[in-house]
Write a structure and sequence with these properties.
By secondary structure, the protein is α/β, with parallel strands linked by helices. It contains 11 helices and 10 strands.
Length: 263
């Protein structure tokens, strides 16, 4: 279970990005977070996995406050939190298999990872995950030779190699064309069901949120102002969530080609 209590985060002396945010999720389902640029969506996810430090509050994963952890304890907690990035965060010069196996570095240690000394069960799991995401034919292909959609699939497989207790995804479809974007969302939604895994996903596309998510959270200026089912997200609520950012809402209510993908 993930429980966030009174979470606050500021950058420098500016206005707080997160203003006493509270959130509890123990459901094995997909929860989408929506809001305009600067609402605090990415900061929230990065606080959860400690990529950025929170100023105050609690982030408890199965009863353990990850904000109080350091050293080995923090490393152990981070490997329980899978992350899919908008920019993929792959090592381009490495193969697809090597990037996926990087998801085990928190378990095998840096030295064994550098020399690619993974257990056979890890290798077998990597093959199985690559088959699940539709990339078994690209095991030995360098990641810089892949399309955007293929790279995001590698990112999904790598995150799942951690055997996480929760999966975070920070706008994983934002750089993809509409068709590939839908495929990635179908993949993530399918993984949620198959692995009984809770997923928190930031989305720049409102129709995708209402189509694939079981629960939707609406952030505005670092405050959670909406928490409900997709069917509860009325036009009135969208106007409140995106108030002052109408152009942003118009962009998110339609799927606009970003980069054509040949996946």
């Amino acid at each position: 279970m993930l429980k966030i209590t009174d979470l606050k985060k500021s950058y420098g002396k500016g206005e707080p990005v997160l203003k006493g945010l509270n959130l509890t999720t123990d459901e094995r389902r997909l929860t989408a977070i929506i809001g305009s640029s600067g609402a605090g969506k990415s900061t929230l996810l990065r606080c959860i996995n400690r990529l950025v430090p929170a100023n105050s509050g609690k982030i408890e994963l199965d009863g353990v406050n990850v904000l109080e952890l350091h050293g080995r304890q923090l490393q152990d907690a981070r490997r329980q939190i899978g992350m899919i990035f908008q920019s993929y965060n792959l090592v381009d010069r490495l193969t697809v298999m090597e990037n996926v196996l990087a998801g085990r570095l928190g378990y095998v240690g840096m030295l064994r990872g550098v020399f690619r000394r993974f257990q056979q069960e890890d290798i077998d799991r990597a093959y199985a995950l690559l088959k699940r995401v539709g990339l078994s034919q690209y095991v030995n292909k360098r990641c810089d030779a892949l399309s955007g959609g293929e790279r995001q699939r590698v990112g999904c497989a790598r995150a799942l190699m951690q055997n996480p207790r929760i999966l975070l995804a920070d706008e994983p479809t934002a750089s993809l064309d509409p068709k590939t974007s839908e495929r990635i969302m179908e993949l993530i939604a399918g993984i949620t069901d198959e692995l009984d895994l809770p997923v928190l996903i930031n989305l720049h596309n409102v129709p995708q949120a209402t189509t694939y998510a079981d629960r939707i959270l609406g952030l505005r200026h670092g405050v959670m102002i909406f928490d409900g089912n997709p069917g509860d997200l009325t036009e009135d609520w969208l106007e409140k969530i995106y108030a002052g950012h109408e152009d942003d809402l118009k962009k998110q209510m339609k799927v606009a080609p970003v980069e054509q993908d040949d996946e």
